[in-house]
Amino acid sequence: MAMALTRSFLEGHEESLIWADFQATAPGGSTSEAAFASARFDLNYDYEWDDSQGAAHGYRVDHVQVTVEVERTIMWSVKKDRSDALLQHEQGHYDIVALLGRDLYNELSGWDSGTKPKRFRKESDLKDEVSRTLRRYKKLALDFAGSSSAVGAYDKKTKHGRDAKAQELWTAALVAARTNGTRVVKALGGL
Fold first, then answer.
1. For the chain, N or C: smaller number of CB within 10 Å?
2. CA 119 from centroid of its chain's CA atoms
3. In terms of pTM, does the model score above 0.90?
4. Angle between helices 84-110 and 164-180 in degrees, nearest 10
5. In angstroms, rounded to a whole number, what is the distance separating the alpha carbons of residues 96 and 131?
6. What share of the chain is helix, strand, coil (3-state, %, to 5)?
């Protein structure tokens, strides 16, 4: 056993940002940005040997825990530039990360369901596959939502929320992903 976790859960993935969440001081000097939102997800999991599947026995993931966290202490906004549209745009950054956290949870939890559950002959194989999966989701979060040092597709396509038509499309896709349970990568495909 890895950590002897007692339950699976997904939490922190349904936050609505407010301006009070932006606790850091806006950077001085010339910046074209009016705000910066940040979120992250973390994973804990347990595993155990399972021989209940007959010939398909092996190690299986058990008790998946994904926590999404709004990183308020590094989020900032320029007070004079605050608007409903800007807050909605910053919410999109959070939503991308939160929905990817949800999708990670669903994928790993899904390994134990279906007619052919995922089993691994060696502990190291299971750990390697979980690590690869986590890295893939973290990369997607960076590619889509960006970071303090990298501009993601969301800001590129919406021009940091200044392209109202593109922003409307991204917002609708994120709402649909949340409402319908659609994987966020699928919902954002083609944008």
1. N
2. 25
3. yes
4. 40
5. 20
6. 45, 20, 35
